[in-house]
Design a protein that fits this description.
By secondary structure, this protein is an alpha/beta fold. The protein is 33% helix and 15% strand. The chain contains 11 helices and 11 strands. It has a 6-stranded parallel beta sheet with strand order 5-4-3-9-10-11, with helices on both faces. It has a 3-stranded antiparallel beta sheet with strand order 7-6-8. It is elongated. Keywords: Metal-binding, Mitochondrion, NAD, Transferase, Zinc. NAD-dependent protein deacylase. Catalyzes the NAD-dependent hydrolysis of acyl groups from lysine residues. This is NAD-dependent protein deacylase.
Length: 310
């Protein structure tokens, strides 16, 4: 039975200390929302109840409620707040100076980024997995918050920032280990900056001019986060695995994603072709609204907390 709908309040921490020393509310990174339509929430309840093998796609809008900024959120995303753009794969591979700038910014941002914890939405989706409701979860996020929440039936479509790969020999190491190497190579180096998405911060070129970047200990090759940068492609084996899990599913729920990136959008095209019903929970419009039979605008944690996984 559907629980009676009533407005919910997210109790954010009063403030979090950024590396720069400034204070912000968690909701600084979550767009403003209108009153949630109770009728649409009831329809989402029926959608979830009717699914027995639910396939979930999550995006940055899920992690903004943990205090991680995103790129595209209206008014609060990186694209709305600055003219900065994320690192492109080609630039990272071609330019040692670009890698120096990237890693310096990532080094400053890592303590804050790696300390974030799963929010209510992550925990609810893990609970659905434990109950047998959620068949598979595909996340576009690289923050490891689904893993921290305990999710097992999980594909990190764009990789995970908590791992580092050598572009020369393919050796994978922990990002925390690289952080220790950065500290050792750069004693006394300091910089302060506001946070940006995916563990990045905003630094000027002058700030990073003397920052030293280590190479792979196995082959002296170039180190890169094990994530899919903009302009790069998702591994074909990963794409096929997701298509296989989608084919086993009977409903698709998008949570916190505008679906602007094709690497995830293609799975909704495949679901539509297979006649698998689609529902979307997101603040604001998405690229896939025309593919969905149901669209709910609201915060993921707020809405999912009243949905019962019957």
């Amino acid at each position: 039975m559907l629980m009676p709908w009533r407005p919910l309040t997210i109790n954010a921490s009063p403030g979090i200390r950024l590396i720069s020393g400034s204070t912000f509310s968690l909701l600084n990174f979550v767009p403003a929302t209108r009153t949630i339509d109770a009728h649409l929430v009831e329809k989402l309840q029926h959608f979830v109840s009717n699914a027995s093998r639910l396939f979930v796609i999550s995006g940055a809008g899920l992690s903004t409620e943990s205090g991680i900024p995103d790129y595209r959120s209206e008014g609060v995303g990186l694209y709305a707040r600055t003219d900065r753009r994320p690192m492109q794969y080609g630039e990272f591979v071609r330019s040692a100076k670009s890698r120096q700038r990237y890693w310096a910014r990532n080094y400053v941002g890592w303590p804050q980024f790696s300390s974030h914890e799963p929010n209510a939405a992550h925990k609810i989706l893990h609970r659905w997995e434990e109950l047998g409701k959620l068949h598979w979860l595909v996340t576009q996020n690289v923050d490891s918050l689904h893993s921290k929440a305990g999710q097992k039936r999980l594909t990190e479509l764009h990789g995970c920032a908590h791992r580092v790969i050598c572009l020369g020999c393919g050796t994978v190491t922990l990002r925390e280990e690289l952080q220790r190497r950065f500290r050792s190579l750069n004693p006394g180096w300091r910089a302060e900056a506001p946070a940006a998405p995916d563990g990045d911060v905003l630094l000027e070129d002058e700030d990073v001019r003397h920052f030293r970047v280590p190479s792979c200990t196995a082959c002296s090759g170039t180190l890169k986060p094990e994530v899919t940068f903009f302009g790069d492609n998702v591994n074909k084996e990963t794409v096929q695995l997701v298509h296989d899990r989608l084919a086993e599913s009977d409903a698709v729920l998008v949570t916190g994603s505008s679906m602007q990136v094709y690497s995830a959008y293609r799975f909704l095209l495949a679901a539509k072709e297979r006649k698998i019903p689609i529902a979307i929970l997101n603040i604001g419009p998405t690229r896939a609204d025309h593919l969905a039979e149901l669209k709910v605008s609201g915060r993921c944690g707020e809405v999912l907390s009243v949905i019962q996984p019957h």
